């Protein structure tokens, strides 16, 4: 991780939008150089939040102007 990079929790939420499960997020965070990933993602609330984001259907591109 470099100076100015998002914290581990913030980055986990960013990764959740394009991930298939929490384990994929853990792996990517480690590849990105974050430490103590398991400790940061061990809480029930953060895991629940990440799963909700992962399961949320993607918003169609170019269709946000429709109401």
- Mean pLDDT value: 89
User: What is the strand content?
Assistant: under 5%
Q: Mind telling me the C-alpha Rg?
A: 14 Å
Largest sheet composition? none
Q: Span between N and C termini?
A: 40 Å
Summing up helix and strand content along with how strands pair, one would put the structural category as: mainly alpha
Which residues form runs of ≥5 with pLDDT under 50?
A: none
SSE blueprint and pairings:
Blueprint: H1 8-16, H2 22-31, H3 37-40, H4 44-55
Helix pairs in contact: 1-2, 1-4
Q: TL;DR of this structure?
A:
The protein is built from four helices and no strands. It is an all-alpha fold and 67 residues long.
Structure write-up:
This protein is mainly alpha-helical and 67 residues long. The protein has one domain (8-55). 52% of the residues lie in helices and 0% in strands. The protein has helices at residues 8-16, 22-31, 37-40, 44-55. Helix 1 (8-16) crosses helix 2 and helix 1 (8-16) packs parallel to helix 4. The radius of gyration is 14 Å and the shape is globular.
